[in-house]
Amino acid sequence: MRNVIFDLGNVLIEWDPALAFADVFTTRDAAEAWLDEIGFHDWNRAQDGGRSFAEGIAAARAQHGDRARWLEGYLAAFPVTIENTVPGSWEILEDLAAQGVPLYALTNWSAESWPAARELHPRLALFRDVLVSGQERLLKPDAAIYRRLLDRNGLAAESCIFVDDSLANVAGARAVGIDAIHFTGAEALREALRQRGF
Q1: Which of these three, 81, 104, 134, is where a domain ends?
Q2: pLDDT confidence of residue 1
Q3: Keyword Ribosomal protein: yes or no (predicted)?
Q4: Is 132 helix (H, G, I), strand (E, B) or coil?
Q5: N or C: which end of the chain has fewer CB within 10 A?
Q6: How sure is the predictor about 60, in pLDDT bands with cuts at 50, 70 and 90?
Q7: Where does the pLDDT of residue 141 fall: very low under 50, low under 70, confident under 90, or very high at 90 and above?
């Protein structure tokens, strides 16, 4: 039986970092402009790669001075950024689980914010294993992170299908021999899986 590996953020769990700063900015546009100003997505990716939040805040303050101060509340506010789920995706996961399909997850996610995901989304227990980039100090789309998941679960690349909303991550999976589906919505994913015999 083939194994299905899911990305989490924006495939199963919606992630909206601007929500963490709703008490600082009066509008979403203002929050998003500030996130762009401080290079939030690159900053956050470093935490996903294993950097601690304390180190990240120090780095942001060194680069942006007092404009970075609001990052200090991000970890505490993080749960509000992941409260919502992607419509229809969990139902697909539950259908696969009911069919006995072995399920795994591979996510770019900070080690320090990961416990919040576990608490808010108990259906993550459907996965046999979740490989969290921040814990491994590896990041998609580097080949090493896909191989880490395969090796620690005794999986052959050709026995797996990977689902991710990032084209770069899809390409990374294919580069190590894993069939991959670019996630654009639950309906399209269900059809792509059906075409693969599920």
Answers
A1: 81
A2: 75
A3: no
A4: strand
A5: N
A6: very high
A7: very high
User: Do the beta carbons of residue 103 and residue 3 sit within 8 Å?
Assistant: yes
Q: Which domain holds residue 132?
A: 3-14+84-195
Q: Same domain, yes or no, for 97 and 27?
A: no
Residue 29 CA to residue 26 CA, distance in Å, equals 9
Which regions of 116-172 does DSSP assign to beta strands (E)? 129-132, 160-164
SS3 breakdown of the chain: % helix, strand, coil, rounded to 5? 55, 15, 30
Confirm if 161 and 178 have CB atoms less than 8 A apart.
yes
Write out the two tokens for 38.
């401080």
In angstroms, rounded to a whole number, what is the distance separating the alpha carbons of residues 44 and 113? 11
> At 73, which amino acid appears?
G
Instruction: Single out the residue in 66, 81, 96 at which a domain terminates.
Output: 81
Q: Which of helix, strand or coil describes residue 72?
A: helix
| Among 143, 130, 114, residue whose Cα is nearest residue 50 | 114
Render pLDDT for 66-87 as a digit per residue (tens, 0 to 9). 999 999 999 999 999 999 999 9
Instruction: Please report, as a single letter, which amino acid is at residue 81.
Output: T
Q: Classify residue 45 by burial, with Cβ atoms within 10 Å: 0-12, 13-18, 19+.
A: middle
pLDDT, residue 90, reads 98
| Domain harbouring 106, CATH code | 3.40.50.1000
